[in-house]
Design goal:
Length: about 290
């Protein structure tokens, strides 16, 4: 009798979860949860000064958190003071610095690099090019205004920032290895019919080209191509909360920003110094379809 009662109790305890799962399946087509295992490297980034553009939310913010946990000093950039304040409040780490910086403003690059170095108290060791604008307007409805806005930030701004900083590194002489990590997209490995995805092709190509060109100078360039990731750029995924189910890749789920941050931390670290010019695809198999 006790065993039967115990079974009945278990059923009642699970009922809310079962009902919730049924609701999620009805709404999104499936229900799946995810627990991320994080690697504790033991302060593997201690002593590194890192600049992360577009670091106030999403993937950039997750990379900042992980780098801080591993001992780095980090400057994140963004276009609004409010987002910077929210990031500071969320992370609460004295080694996190913030800078209002729109990377599309090319004429401000040199001055903002100077400001970054002052905040870091020394040279920049790693540049993470993460800033980007998302717009899904596709061919044949793309306007010149949409094209210019996306390309100015995602491609032009990223190119000239990287060029300016790398020139400073080379001309100033380097006492240690420098790194550039470019955040591309799964869209860089499939057909492109709109500006956002085309800029991601630009980034993947530049990563390969600069990888070859800059490695002899002591600058290692690599990239990451995330698939669908739960960020404010894809609000529909955030609405699913803990349900990570989606149908767009073989894994039948989307990524969380922390997963991309784990990969970025490895590439930033000196454990990945023999990887050159590669864009590592982290998209659940989407680009293989």
């Amino acid at each position: 009798m006790k065993r039967i009662m115990h079974k009945i109790k278990q059923i009642f305890q699970r009922t809310p979860l079962v009902i919730k799962s049924i609701k999620e399946i009805y709404k999104y087509g499936g229900y799946s949860t995810l627990k991320i295992t994080k690697v504790n490297y033991g302060k593997i980034l201690k002593g590194k000064n890192i600049l992360i553009t577009g670091g106030s939310t999403g993937i950039g913010l997750s990379i900042a958190k992980k780098c801080l946990q591993e001992g780095a000093t980090v400057v994140i950039t963004g276009r609004t003071e409010k987002k910077m304040e929210q990031a500071i409040e969320e992370i609460k780490n004295p080694r996190l610095k913030t800078l209002i910086w729109d990377v599309s403003q090319i004429d401000q690059l040199e001055e903002n690099i100077k400001k970054t170095k002052l905040l870091l108290g020394g040279d920049i060791d790693v540049l993470v090019n993460n800033a980007g604008i998302v717009n899904g307007v596709t061919f044949p409805n793309v306007t010149e205004k949409i094209w210019d806005k996306i390309y100015t930030t995602n491609s032009k701004g990223m190119f000239f920032l990287t060029q300016s900083l790398c020139n400073q590194w080379i001309k100033g002489g380097m006492d240690k290895l420098k790194k550039v990590i470019n955040i591309s997209s799964q869209g860089a490995f499939v057909g492109a019919t709109y500006p956002y995805r085309m800029t991601k092709w630009d980034i993947a190509g530049l990563t390969q080209g600069l990888g070859i060109k800059l490695a002899p100078c002591g600058i290692i360039v690599n990239g990451i191509a995330p698939g669908l990731t739960a960020t404010k750029a894809v609000p529909s995924l955030l609405n699913q909360k803990e349900n990570v189910y989606c149908t767009q890749n073989p894994l039948k789920r989307f990524a969380l920003p922390d997963e991309i941050a784990e990969l970025a931390t490895f590439l930033i670290s000196d454990a990945a110094n023999f990887i050159v010019g590669q864009t590592i695809v982290c998209d659940g198999g989407y680009s293989l379809k």
